[in-house]
Amino acid sequence: MDKMIPITERDNENTAHIDQASTLEAVRLINNEDKVVALAVEKVLPEISEAIDRIVERLQNGGRLFYAGTGTSGRIGVLDASEIPPTFGVSYEVVQGVLAGGYEALYKASEASEDNKSAGALDLQERGLTEKDAVVGIAASGRTPYTIGAVEYAEQVGCFTACITCVPDSEITRAADVVIVPVVGPEAITGSSRMKAGTAQKMILNMISTVAMIRLGYVKGNRMTNLKSSNSKLNERSLRILMAETGLDESAATTLLLKAGMDLRVALVMNGAKAERDVSETALRKSDFVVEKALSFLR
Questions:
Q1: Mind listing the pLDDT tens digit for each residue in 22-61?
Q2: Where would I find the H helices in 161-276?
Q3: What is the largest CA-CA distance in the chain?
């Protein structure tokens, strides 16, 4: 009987008596389970790499990346998507999270909505999905109707599709072009896929979005040279990056950043091309806001 139950729903013998453990023992048990997650992700790096390369092809040709999911999986997708614009300076349209139940489900459980297969397709339709786009379906169990419906619809449209699930040979694996299956095993609390499965999903989305942005040219070395400054912490980070990239001292870098309207991208182009702000901004727009391309354009 147990073999017929998805691995994410099975009992975990290692934590069978966690309710009787001390607080320290309980967190050790959970920590021991978490140790398997990175190893499980390591085994699927080739699939993650293939997905990234194919997503980048879509993004380079004007497409967008959508994460579709429900519950924890969907919330993780929205979280990752929301971090991309401030980190890499791209539009909020480029990477989008599509969550069953809408954004209200971010803070209010709406797990019943995951059973509506047609809703996954409809939500993507409402985003104007086209064959230029890429869709990643995220479903720990691999059997969530909403997410399967989204991936199947994306396939019909002609998108590139990938899925992230922790259950081998689950239904969603038969719907996607690239299948990413980190097998993390049963959860510390039976069926609580917000734990190991959720951690694996977050790690993989980190890789997908980060390396995609690197491939698109929004990182130099390991510095986020397309950072959008929106608060004091990010202003300070922009200043440090500008100083490191240009060799300017703090006073000169501060003056340059102010002249650039606190836009690190503009400041880097102004310095590198010895150009005025308006010229630098125009070059960036013509270069998809890739600093190195803008500099090449002006040289």
A1: 999 999 999 999 999 999 999 999 999 999 999 999 999 9
A2: 196-216, 232-246, 250-259, 264-273
A3: 70
The Cα–Cα gap between 30 and 297 comes to: 53
Q: Are residues 191 and 237 in the same domain?
A: no
**Block mean pLDDT (10 aa), the chain, length 299:** 77 94 97 97 98 98 97 95 94 95 77 82 96 97 96 98 97 97 94 94 98 96 91 94 97 97 96 96 94 91
Give the CA distances from residue 128 to residues 49, 132, 231, in Å, rounded to whole numbers and listed in that order. 27, 11, 32
- Judge if 178 and 273 occupy the same domain: no
Residues with active-site annotation: 83, 114
Range of the domain at 287: 232-298
Q: Domain boundary at 169, 187, 216, which?
A: 216
Q: Which two tokens stand for residue 92?
A: 């909020």
Residue 4 is assigned to a structural domain of this protein: no
What's the pLDDT at 112?
A: 63
Are residues 49 and 165 located together in one domain of the fold? yes
Q: Are 155 and 125 in contact (CB under 8 A)?
A: no
Residue 28 belongs to some domain of the structure:
yes
Q: How many domains does the chain have?
A: 2
Tell me the whole-structure pTM to 2 decimals. 0.92
Residue 203 phi, psi dihedral angles, 5° rounding: -60, -40
Distance CA 104, CA 83 (A): 18
Residue type, 4: M
Q: Tell me, what DSSP letter sits at residue 272?
A: H
- Which of 171, 191, 216 is the endpoint of a domain? 216
Burial of 230 (0-12, 13-18, 19+ CB in 10 A): exposed
Helices 71-88 & 196-216 angle (0-180, nearest 10): 30
Residue 274: CB partners within 8 Å, gap ≥ 6? none
pLDDT of 230 reads 83
